[in-house]
Design brief:
Cytochrome p450; 17 helices; 10% strand; globular; binds protoporphyrin IX containing FE
């Protein structure tokens, strides 16, 4: 184990008790040791737990860079894993579909997908697994559709999404590289098919106006046709964009649905309250769930220069985990942080919690997942008023993820 400076305590996010529920560990950190150091994975890293420290790091990308990737592994600087102008322009290409107008246009189709899945789940009931039968497939369907991947291929897509998530966070770098190669091959087939469509139409150079005309109107076509700093994206950039959107939009939204229903049903008076006034309580419940049970417990940065954080000198080129889950339970930022409360203010929560990160790398998919889960909650309130928990749940795999992998419920109908 590395010799740690005074005031820094070892941190092992993979320790059995921390994995099962990290919140007692966060409470200890908030009472006097806001910075930790981990040797638990292949790559060592520092960890920040305090709300102000995490937020300050998010807002200072010149010191806390995403250029070496946002996991504990040092990755190539590309696409979302970059800083400054490069990153701003890259992100803008894919953010268009997630603008307020974009989200409003997506809502009817998302509602339709949710209704179909709910009908299937009801047909299977009365006891079902909310994770397998609803919360997992819905975001996969939505992201597949936005990417432009049709039909049964969404099963392959989910497989790659899970493999990436399971291996990106530093258990084994070698396995991560294998998975990365597999995902690249998957997207290459789709990119090649689009270039073949352009060739068949006699087009030599893709242009933005080909999206939705010669090519389907989706993210794969955006990756091919968009202008980026006076050129087109190269193959590696196209792959990293599609991978980021795939992984970003899947497990996180699944976890938001399972975490939220778990907390509401665990204490039936909460579900009653949401049912009694859905317009008022659905938005609060979503934001409180994001704060209380943040689906992404943390992402990483790399220090570009020596910096003092929470009174500790950290050298340049160090990996640092920004622990969103802990920051959102910091008593210095939220009253009574370890209670799930529906009497908080939804707008205040949405502005302050860090479940979607913040700053220039803040989640561009936040409006989509808020819309998606809002649609789901309305459907559940209308169609499943008597739903209850049916058996104990299980946590999802991976220290950086926090969601229910099994959530048996009784649909009550
Ligand atoms: C409840 C759902 C979601 C949660 C909790 C979540 C969480 C996050 C967080 C914490 C970050 C910041 C990462 C960092 O600071 O390094 C992030 C970034 C990102 N998310 Fe999400 N996300 C969700 C949904 C989505 C969806 C639906 C999409 C797209 C389909 C998406 C795509 C992305 C992308 C591409 C980034 C990288 C942005 C950048 O580096 O500029 N996310 N997400």
């Amino acid at each position: 184990m590395t010799d740690l400076p005074p005031g820094v305590h070892p941190y092992d996010p993979t320790a059995r008790d921390v994995l099962e529920s990290p919140f007692a560990e966060y409470r200890r950190r908030h009472s006097g040791c806001p910075i930790g150091h981990s040797d638990a994975l292949e790559m060592p890293f520092w960890a920040l737990f305090g709300y102000d420290d995490v937020r300050a790091a998010l807002l200072d990308p010149k010191t806390f860079s995403s250029r070496y990737g946002t996991t504990p592994v040092f990755q190539k600087s590309i696409g979302f894993f970059s800083d400054g102008k490069e990153h701003t322009h890259f992100r803008a290409i894919f953010r268009k579909r997630l603008s307020p107008e974009g989200i409003a246009a997506l809502q009817p189709r998302v509602a339709d997908m949710a209704r179909r899945l709910l009908d299937d789940m009801i047909a299977k009931g009365p006891v079902v697994d909310l994770h397998d039968d609803f919360a997992l497939p819905l975001p996969v369907h939505v992201v597949s559709w936005l990417l432009g991947i049709q039909g049964d291929e969404f099963v392959t897509l989910k497989h790659w999404s899970d493999e990436l998530m399971d291996n990106a966070f530093g258990k084994s770098n070698a396995r991560f590289l294998e998975v990365y190669a597999g995902v690249c091959a998957f997207f290459d087939q789709h990119l090649d098919a689009r270039y073949a469509m352009l060739t068949a139409a006699g087009i030599e150079e893709a242009r933005p106006e080909h999206v939705g005309t010669v090519l389907p109107d989706d993210w794969i076509s955006d990756a091919i046709c968009a202008d980026y700093l006076g050129r087109k994206l190269n193959r590696d950039e196209q792959r990293i964009a599609l991978m980021g959107l795939l992984v970003g939009g899947n497990e996180t939204t699944t976890s938001l649905i399972t975490n939220l229903m778990w907390r509401l049903l665990e204490e039936p008076s909460r579900w009653e309250l949401v049912r009694s006034d859905p317009d008022r309580f659905i938005p609060v419940a979503i934001e409180e769930s994001l704060r209380f049970d943040s689906p992404s417990q943390g992402m990483f940065r790399t220090t570009l220069c020596p910096v003092e954080v929470a009174g500790i000198e950290i050298a340049a080129k160090q990996k640092l985990m920004l622990n969103f889950g802990a920051a959102n339970r910091d008593p210095a930022a939220f009253d009574d942080p370890d209670s799930f409360r529906l009497d908080r203010d939804a707008r205040d929560l949405s502005r302050r919690h860090l479940a979607f990160g913040g700053g220039v790398h803040g989640c561009p998919g936040a409006p989509l997942s808020r819309m998606e889960v809002g649609v789901v909650m309305r459907l559940f309130v209308e169609q499943l008023p008597e739903v209850t928990l049916a058996a104990p749940s299980q946590r999802s795999v991976g220290y950086n993820l926090w969601g229910r992998r099994k959530l048996p419920i009784n649909l009550g109908r």
